[in-house]
Amino acid sequence: MSVLFDRTLAVLGAGLTARSEAQGVIAGNVANADTPGFRARRVDFSEALARVARGERAPNQARTDARHFEGLEGAQELEGRVEIDTSAGRVDGNNVVLEDEVSAQVANAMEYQALTTLARRKFGMMRYALDHGGR
Questions:
Q1: What is the greatest pairwise CA distance in the chain?
Q2: What are phi and psi of 50, to 5 degrees?
Q3: With contact defined as beta carbons under 8 Å apart, do 85 and 42 qualify?
Q4: Which of 35, 78, 99, 107 has the least CB density, counted as fewest CB within 10 Å?
Q5: For residue range 24-72, what is the model confidence (pLDDT) as tens digits?
Q6: Cα(23)–Cα(59) distance, rounded to whole angstroms?
Q7: Do the beta carbons of residue 9 and residue 122 sit within 8 Å?
Q8: Pairwise CA distance, residues 28 & 79, whole Å
Q9: What is d(CA 129, CA 62) in angstroms, rounded to the nearest whole number?
Q10: Per-residue model confidence as pLDDT tens digits over 73-128
Q11: Residue 71: CA atoms inside 13 Å, Cβ hemisphere, count?
């Protein structure tokens, strides 16, 4: 594993990818809030993120070149499991609750912001090490 690109960056990158994907699912739910029969979707990345944290490759991802960074496997091919919410809905069959979607969006945005802050700090530490490594 490269000292410069370690598992921390892989996990942070995978987390940012997951939060972006979740935002798309939430936006789709909001866009279909008035569509009869539409069922809200939820995305679950827990298995994929755990795999990345362990440094494992995605099942469909092979290391095709020895120059590929060790420890970053799985981050490029992060796939969450999108599940359809089967809870009871309105008379028209739609079960999207806008208040729940807004709450999910706020939580997702906060997680995304936390991950970007951690990534910025990680890169700051790397920059400091490069600037002061020979002294």
A1: 70
A2: -65, -40
A3: yes
A4: 99
A5: 999 999 999 999 999 999 988 777 767 766 767 665 555 555 555 454 4
A6: 24
A7: yes
A8: 17
A9: 32
A10: 444 456 678 899 999 889 999 999 999 999 999 999 999 999 999 999 998 988 88
A11: 13
